[in-house]
């Protein structure tokens, strides 16, 4: 039977092998090689998953000239009422905030032709005294 003089892929020592495809000189080197191979395989797999998550963007039909959702959001303009509500919330001006909130709900319902039921802390938005009741609730 023919023997081959080979160099171990892990420790670098020379050994004689009966097969041309042998890579390791001992069982310990074989286990370490398998561990390194598995570690490298998992590293590549995790990198592929991470890259796929980062590149995950909703693809839209290109008939509007928009390539993806990020490009579409770049030109998005926030409605003025939302900007005013955010400013009032930051200043903790609750009267203005809840007045604008009620106005936004009513405008949205008029746009869609539907009257829903909106409760905030147990108070219905369509109540005439909604803002005053909310301010009383906050003061409690």
From TrEMBL:
Query: What is the superkingdom listed in this entry's lineage?
Result: Bacteria
UniProt-recorded name of the protein: Uncharacterized protein
The record lists the organism as Streptococcus macedonicus
């Amino acid at each position: 039977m023919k023997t081959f003089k080979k160099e171990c892929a892990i420790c670098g020592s020379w050994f004689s092998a009966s097969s041309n495809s042998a890579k390791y000189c001992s069982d310990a080197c074989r286990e370490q090689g398998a561990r390194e191979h598995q570690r490298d395989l998992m590293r590549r797999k995790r990198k592929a998953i991470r890259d796929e998550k980062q590149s995950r963007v909703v693809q839209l039909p290109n008939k509007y000239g928009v390539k993806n959702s990020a490009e579409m959001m770049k030109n998005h303009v926030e409605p003025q009422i939302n900007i005013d509500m955010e400013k009032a919330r930051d200043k903790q001006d609750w009267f203005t905030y809840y007045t604008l909130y009620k106005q936004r709900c009513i405008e949205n319902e008029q746009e869609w032709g539907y009257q829903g039921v909106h409760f905030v802390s147990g108070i219905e938005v369509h109540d005439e005294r909604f803002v005053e009741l909310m301010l009383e609730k906050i003061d409690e």
